[in-house]
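#struct-help
A.M.: can someone run this one for me? Single chain, 281 residues.
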Amino acid sequence: MEAKILPGPGHKARAPRVRAPGERHNIQSVDRALFLLESIAEAGGETTLTDLSQRTGLNISTCHHLLATLVQRGFAAKVPGKRLYALGPRILHLGHACRQVDLPRRALPYLEAVNRATGETVHLAAVQGDSVVTLAVREARHAVRVDTGRTGKIAAPHATSVGKAILAWLPDDEMSRIVAGGLKRCTDNTITDFAAFVDDLKRVRRDGYALDREEHLPGVICVGAAIRDQAGIVIGGISASTPTQRGTNEHIALMRDEITAAARALSAEFGAPQLLAAAAQ
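D.P.: on it. Structure tokens below:
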């Protein structure tokens, strides 16, 4: 039986993990590793080895060996220059995947609201691997509507408003990886020069929304904005598309206002602070 380390004065230790009767088939090392991750999270995202031992009731040697495996797999990380362990990047990766599963369900009322207010086709998209993918579409209510494609991979995200809205907020290396195949020309208005494209993404960040004026499809204008989470990470984007014959300045302004309001509200639902939610406009 492992020796238990008693918590120091004033420290509220968590009770050691005890198996319930129905957990006979649990693998103890897996159970303990997950317990360590939960304890790091409860400690505020980073803590010392000694504190983890006290919180979990496991001896320091066991904690150290389990943490070494978690660090190797990216689920935990050593904090540089400090004797601290933190949650690792793989936790963020899994959380991001979970949010993408939840995103279409939570976005549905906002897609419908923008669709009602503008009468136009509305798209929801997100990054999956090295691609920007359309997750949901609400078709326009007008007899004359645009065909901007269905769900699935967006072949030229650099030419779409929802693609640019997402790409503008990604780390440079991730953005470059997604457009690594080149900035393919879709229309005469497509931006195909990389430096000009980077400048356009700067405008997206400055304005809070992306605009596609016949860059992806002739005769189609789109407005898109990014959806952020509590850490400020982009988890998706939402856009509205209209044929140029309805694309008056007033109508585009309406689309912009509805799209940015939806992106702001969705960002708030995913925990984005007020300033970050505003930046999702």
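A.M.: thanks! The first strand starts at residue 46 and ends at 47.
D.P.: also worth noting: Confidence is low (pLDDT under 50) at residues 1-16.
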